[in-house]
Amino acid sequence: MPAPKKPSTKKKAAEAPKPAAEADAPKEEGAAAEPAKKAVRAKKPPAPMMPVHDPLPSVGTISVDEALKSAVGWSNSNNISKKFSVGTLTTAPYSEKVRVFQEMNSLAEEKSAVLPMSNFQSKHKTDPDKDRFDRRVVKQLQDISFESDSDDESLRNLKRLPNTVLNVENLRKILSPDTTRLNLENHYWLPNDFLAKIGRMAPNLQEFSLRRMKNIDNLTFAEIFKNQKGKLQKIDFCDCDGLHESALKLCLDKNPLLQEIQLSGCKNAVTDEIMEQIATKFPHLYMLDVSFAERLTDRGLKVFEGRKLGLEYLSINGVGGISCEGLGWLVESVSETVRELECAMLMQPTVKGSFGASLGRCY
Question: Of residues 62 and 331, which shows the higher confidence score?
C-alpha cells in the first residue's frame, strides 16, 4: 500500500498571513493595486450663531447720542433709533414711554385726532400702585358698560380695520381722563350708545368735534355734555341735525371757557336764547359760526347792540330770518377786532346804509 503524500509547504506558506511589516510595505511597480478604503472624517462642530469672544470685551457705558454720532450711515442710525425706542417702550415705566413716544411723534401732534399723544400707549388706565403682573380684573360700580346689541355685517367689517381707524374698540383703549382733544368728524360708524359714554370716558376734553355726525340725536348730545367737567375751549358741531337747543344750552352752561363755537348747519339748535347766551357769557370767545340758523331772528341779535366783543372770525351765512338792521348790530359789535367776516346768502330785500357803515368800520 503506497504511503500518503505530504501536503505541500509552499501552499501553506502562501496561505499564511503576512506580517504587519510586510502588509504595510510599498508595492512594487506594475503590481495590481488593491481598492483603497475611504478615510472617515470627523464632523466639525457647527459654527456659533454669534461670534464668541473669550474673555468678553468690556463695552462700557454709551449713550444714545454717542451711538448715533458713531453711526456709519443713515440706515445704521435709523436702526439705532428704532432699537432704542422699542427697548424703551417695552421695559421702561409709563412716564418714560410717554416721553419717548411724544418726542418721536412731535410732528404728528397738530393733525392728531386725539390729544395727548400718550393716550395711544393705552397704559393710562393702569393703577401705578397695583402690581403690574397682577392681571385680575375686578368689576367696580362706576365701571362703564360697553354691552350692546349685535351689530350688522357692515359695522363688524369696520371693527376689523387697523388701529389707525378710531372705532369703538380703539377708542375704548385710547380715551381717558387725560384726553384733551377728540375729533370724530364724520365717524358715522360709531353708535349712539357708545358716543353717549364719551363724557364719562374723557371728561376733561378741551377740543371736541362731532362735525357732520348727523346720526347723533339730542339725548346723546345731552348725555355727553352732562358728564363733562367744564373744560371745553373749542367745539365744532357743524351739520349736526340732531342737536337741539336744550342740549346745546347744557353745553354752554357747563363750559364758560369756550373760545371757538362752530354751529354751522345746526338749524334746530341756534335760537335767539342761544345767541343771547353767547353774547354775554364768553369773554374769551374769538371765533363764532352760526351759519344757516333757521330759528335765529332780530330778537337774538338785539343783545349785540352797543356791545364790543373780541371776535376775530365771524360767519353768519344763509340766515334768512334776520333783517339788515339786526345784522348791523352784530357786525358793529365786532368791528374793532374782526379779521374774517362771512355774511353771504342772506337774501335780505333791502340793505340799509347803517349796515354798510358798520361793515366799513371792520376793515
Answer: 331
Task: Go through the domains of the chain in sequence order and give each one's CATH number.
Answer: 114-119+135-362 (3.80.10.10)
Of 345, 280, 351, 287, which Cα lies nearest the Cα of 313? 287
Phi, psi of 11 (to 5 degrees): -65, -40
The span from the CA of 226 to the CA of 129, in Å, is: 30
Of 67-71, 155-159, 160-164, 243-247, the range with the highest mean pLDDT is 243-247
pTM for the whole structure: 0.65
> Count of CB atoms within 10 A of residue 38's CB?
6
Nearest CA to 262 among 233, 242, 224?
233
Cell of 155: 359695522
Question: Which neighbouring-strand residues pair with 236?
Answer: 209, 262
Q: What are the backbone angles phi and psi of residue 235, rounded to the nearest 5°?
A: -130, 145
Give me the residue label for grid cell 342772506.
346
